[in-house]
Design a protein that fits this description.
The complex is a heterodimer of chains A (386) and B (134). Chain A has two domains: 138 residues, Peroxisomal Thiolase, Chain A, domain 1 (3-Layer(aba) Sandwich), CATH 3.40.47; 216 residues, Peroxisomal Thiolase, Chain A, domain 1 (3-Layer(aba) Sandwich), CATH 3.40.47. Chain A is 33% helix and 19% strand. Chain A contains 13 helices and eleven strands. Chain A has a five-stranded mixed beta sheet, sandwiched between helices. In chain A, strands 8-11-10-9 form a four-stranded mixed beta sheet. A two-stranded antiparallel sheet of chain A has the order 5-6. In chain A, a hairpin with a 4-residue loop joins strand 10 and strand 11. Helix content of chain B is 8%, strand content 40%. In chain B, a hairpin with a 7-residue loop joins strand 7 and strand 8. The radius of gyration of chain B is 16 Å and the shape is globular. Classes of the chains: A alpha/beta (386), B mainly beta (134). The interface between A and B is large, with 38 and 35 residues.
């Protein structure tokens, strides 16, 4: 079986890049990734993007970015799967290399959320939920998460600070990531005093929407440059599963079935057990998503995932470090770039170049991004090779 | 203006018309033509009673464009007595605080305006606390 290698990584800082366009942001990440790969030449470009057609009035990003990056002529297209667009683009890259038809793939995730502000961004984000039966009632992505959290806290008798450990962990880790949007640890007191966004969620339960771009170069192991300068990291599994788009149509509201399915398929594909996972980059767009993702991945019993945040299990020194570079909450949530950031951060960990946030001896990383409340779940497993 | 899009949903918006699976008797809302329970074709129309209870709820303070005039407003997942769950706003709460398990019933209200002051007003279902006989 072909070994698919992440040969190059690149990222911009995540934040409000008012003075940088979508194409320029993407180019920065692309250039870093190509250079990091030792100058490999991509034959195909897959772009992960969520909302550029809506918020930047720009669709057709494949042609735009291939041209802007000086790669005119290569295969190029956009992959969209809501908030999971980045992970879905990586999956396309994986398939292309695995098929044997493409030797070197460039995957870039890019998003410019600050091209619109406030209520207009909420509307744009709500185009990723059910238009006929959800957003017409004033539902947003945040509302969906709040409805999940309300029911989850009710059924499991969770105290008001029960989810606090997720943003606390994320911000503690974001402090050590120079590309993170928020680089300051927060206290439980900060959490308890924060304004309510959509009850029971407060400001710290909701990851900030931000601008960012991240890129990956993929190839087969035998095609790596002879003087390849990094420890080798391979993609051991790449899986996607789907659930209902509309939250109301779930058989079981409090279970991320797609997340569970994609994780189980990924463990099987990579031939590893959950005990071998050294770190988990989950999709904490909302703290409730983190709790439910931990449960779906089997790291805690149903209804108990929130306890892993309170007892230190997900801290860098814990049994299962999560959001090791700040997660969506502190690094920021750049939409269709998020899944690529997760991969870049995992490669940094597996190469041993994660700086003060390094998880010592990390060999195996699980990363997962979600479109909506687990309507799509994309899971990848990354492994360092001796 | 998105007149056709709203017009073609008028049965659902004003009448809570879904479907009944002729194979396994599952009640379906919104209509989807293939029964989610048994996977067979299900195109028999079925009018829901509009009665149900609050399964979950939340109040939105920062409304998306088109909903600012109604903010803050409360969105709920309402479990209909026939089985399905629907997403809808709660209205006419008065002094009642929304809570899980609260009995509610459907009522037709304005959902939102499409922005322009001469623009279309879109009506549809919301849910209010169930009226009790005195």
């Amino acid at each position: 079986m072909t070994e698919i290698i992440i040969a190059g990584i690149g990222q911009t800082s995540v934040g409000e890049h008012w003075n940088i366009s979508l194409r320029s942001l993407a180019l920065q990440a692309i250039q870093i990734a190509i250079q990091d790969s030792g100058g490999l030449k991509p034959q195909a470009l897959y772009v992960g993007n969520m909302l550029a057609a809506n918020i930047s009035r720009q669709a057709h990003l494949g042609a735009l970015l291939a041209d802007f990056a000086g790669l005119t002529g290569i295969e190029a297209e956009t992959v969209e799967a809501g908030g999971a667009s980045g992970g879905a683009a990586l999956r396309q890259g994986y398939l292309a290399i695995a098929s044997g038809l493409v030797d070197v793939v460039l995957v870039v995730g890019a998003e410019k959320f600050t091209d619109v502000i406030g209520p207009d961004l909420e509307v744009a984000l709500a185009t990723t939920i059910d238009a006929d039966y959800e957003s017409i009632h004033g539902m947003t992505l945040t509302t969906q998460a709040a409805l999940l959290a309300q029911r989850y806290m009710h059924e499991n008798h969770i105290p008001v600070d029960g989810l606090a450990g997720f943003p606390l962990t994320a911000h503690a880790n974001g402090a050590g990531n120079k590309n993170a949007m928020y680089r300051k640890a927060i206290t439980l007191d900060d959490y308890l005093k924060a304004d309510t966004v959509s009850d029971p969620l407060n400001l710290y339960d909701v990851a900030p929407n931000a601008d960012g771009a991240a890129a990956l170069m993929l190839t087969r192991r035998e095609l790596l440059p002879k003087d390849f300068p990094h420890p080798i990291v391979r993609l051991a599994a790449s899986t996607i599963a789907s659930d209902t788009l509309s939250l109301a149509e779930r058989n079981d509201l409090l279970w991320f079935a797609a997340a569970q399915a994609s994780v189980e398929q990924a463990f099987q594909k990579a031939s590893i057990t959950r005990e071998q996972v050294d770190l988990f980059e989950y999709y904490d767009a909302f703290s409730i998503f983190a709790a439910m993702s931990l449960e779906a991945a089997g790291f805690g019993p149903r209804g108990q995932g929130w306890k892993l945040a309170g007892d230190g299990s997900i801290a860098r020194s814990g049994q299962l470090p999560c959001a090791t570079q700040g997660g969506l909450k502190a690094r920021g949530n750049p939409g269709g770039a998020t899944g690529i950031y997760q991969a870049v951060e995992a490669v940094d960990q597996l190469r041993g170049q994660a700086g003060v946030n390094q998880i010592y001896g990390a060999r195996t990383a699980l990363i997962q991004c979600l479109g909506g409340p687990g309507s799509i779940a994309v899971t990848h497993i990354l492994e360092s090779i001796e | 203006m998105e007149i056709p899009r709203h017009w073609r949903l008028r049965q659902q918006r004003y009448g809570l018309i879904g479907e009944l699976c002729p194979h396994c008797d599952t009640k379906i809302f919104p209509p989807r033509d293939i029964c989610p329970a048994c996977g067979h074709e299900a195109k028999t129309s079925f009018a829901f009673s509009g009665r149900g209870e609050v399964f979950s709820f939340t109040t939105i303070y920062e409304a998306p464009t088109g909903f600012e005039e109604t903010a803050p407003y409360t969105v709920a997942l309402v479990k209909l007595e026939e089985g399905p769950m629907v997403t809808a706003q709660l209205t006419d709460l008065g002094d009642d605080k929304p809570e899980i398990g609260m009995p509610v019933e459907m009522i037709t209200r304005r959902l939102h305006s499409d922005g322009d002051e001469r623009g279309m007003l879109i009506y549809g279902y919301k849910f209010r606390p169930s009226m009790k006989a005195v």
